[in-house]
Amino acid sequence: MSNALALGAVTAVLKNLLDNAVVNEKLTNAVGPVKVSALAPDKVKAIDNFVGLNLFLYHVQPNAGWRNRQLPSRDFNGARVTNPPLALDLFYLLTAWGAADFEAEILLGYAMQLFHEIPVLSRDVIRKTFESSPVVDGTILPLKYKDLAASSLASQFELLKITTYPMSAEESSKLWSAIQVNYRPSVAYQVSVVLIDSEAPVKLSLPVLTRNIAGQPNTMPPFPTLISVAAPNQQPAARLGENVTVTGFNLGGMPVQALLHHSAKTVPPIVLTQVTSTEATVPLPNNPAVWPAGNYSLELEVGGVSKHVSNALPLAVAPVIDMPGSSAARDGDQNVIVSIHCSPAVQPGQNAILILGDITALSDPHPAPTQNLTFKFLKADAPDPGATPLIRLRIDGVESIFIDRTQTPPVFDDTQRLLIP
């Protein structure tokens, strides 16, 4: 997910879209030199003969849908047990400034058409904003987005949606009165939702070994519809090289291929050969260089000429810890330093957490894809010397498999234990 730089990153992306629109639509032919700014309106007023568009973040509020999504972040002892994201809706005031007749109206019309045609900020649009400098009328602007590239905005779970905010005359009057600037042609927009994640370590208990959950639809849909995605051996996640079973309706009609989407990397489709009308087997390729661990969304594309794409269901792909290639040591302050070798490689921007028994630690920074991670457990929290706690690696919320569910009842996999020096 994103970090605290996300608010500035959203504004930078929107401003970059407006900058590109000024170039693409050749507005300078209609109204002369055009500027795009992201300042408070009183700052724009102080600029002599300003002609252009100004984007002003005037209000931020919690997103109602995400606010109560997770359990409380602390237990009865006050220890942190979850890191719910800070979910925010951003409200912008887009204002057009002109020096002659019709200039403000022309600028506002082009800007509104732009946001109408781009209602969702794709991950590619966000990444491109921070890869190159925006260009307006042949002049390269100073690259002020360099620090905002670290916001990880493109890798957050939800895409950003842009919608017009229906501001009443009373709200508009109060807003402009508070700004203390003469009214200009303007329109309000809501951008939702920005997810700011916390990197604070949390204390986790071992999971429940058995759960009985079943679901059954009431009607049969006419199009390809997925009901469930199941990893082998009743595991909560699949590993590369394993088969995933997908159940649903109307899945037959060759050819069929599985479309998987991951926020950190683009992966190729998987052509399926074992498909019936109600069940399909999806073989996950054992190719760690192409397929990262983490959360995917899975769809089935059914048919040849007349293609139908099913609904999407989540699929978790678990990392694998190479236990012979992992070790623990103590530094001079008696902190426990754990080094692990894992597969597949962890991508830049992916959140890697190691759970040692019931304590957690965040990995050291990994700016490039890597299979070697290092974690530091403080002496006060680390297990005692000689202990052999269960070890599990969590990548973007998906944990490595450490429970053997082929046995009844399930048991913990003792090969996933690490000796503490």
What's this model, at a glance?
With 421 residues, the chain is an alpha+beta fold.
Write the layout of secondary structure elements.
Layout: H1 6-24, H2 28-31, E1 35-37, H3 41-45, E2 52-62, H4 64-67, E3 86-97, H5 103-117, E4 120-121, H6 123-129, E5 135-136, E6 139-140, E7 160-164, H7 169-179, E8 186-196, E9 225-230, E10 243-249, E11 256-262, E12 270-272, E13 279-283, E14 294-302, E15 308-309, E16 313-317, E17 320-330, E18 336-346, E19 352-356, E20 359-362, E21 370-377, E22 391-395, E23 398-399, E24 403-404, E25 411-412
Parallel strand pairs: 1-2
Antiparallel strand pairs: 2-3, 3-8, 4-7, 5-6, 7-8, 9-10, 10-13, 11-12, 11-14, 14-15, 14-16, 17-18, 18-21, 19-20, 19-22, 22-23, 24-25
Radius of gyration (CA) equals: 26 Å
What count of domains describes the coordinates? 3
Share of helical residues: 10-25%
Shape: globular
Residue runs with pLDDT of under 50 for 5 or more positions:
133-143
For the termini, the CA-CA separation is: 34 Å
What's the count of strands?
25
Q: What is the strand content?
A: 25-35%
Q: How many helices does DSSP assign?
A: 7
- Main pleated-sheet profile: 6 strands, mixed
Overall pLDDT metric: 86
Spatial arrangement of strands, main beta sheet: 1-2-3-8-7-4
**Class per helix and strand makeup:** alpha+beta
What does this structure look like?
Residues 133-143 have low confidence and may be disordered. 15% of the residues lie in helices and 34% in strands. It has helices at residues 6-24, 28-31, 41-45, 64-67, 103-117, 123-129, 169-179, and strands at 35-37, 52-62, 86-97, 120-121, 135-136, 139-140, 160-164, 186-196, 225-230, 243-249, 256-262, 270-272, 279-283, 294-302, 308-309, 313-317, 320-330, 336-346, 352-356, 359-362, 370-377, 391-395, 398-399, 403-404, 411-412. The chain folds into three domains: 6-196, no CATH class; 225-317, Immunoglobulin-like (Sandwich); 320-416, no CATH class. The longest helix has 19 residues, at 6-24. The strands form seven sheets. A six-stranded mixed sheet has the order 1-2-3-8-7-4. Strands 11, 12, 14, 15 and 16 form a five-stranded antiparallel sheet that branches. Strands 20-19-22-23 form a four-stranded antiparallel sheet, with no helix packed on it.
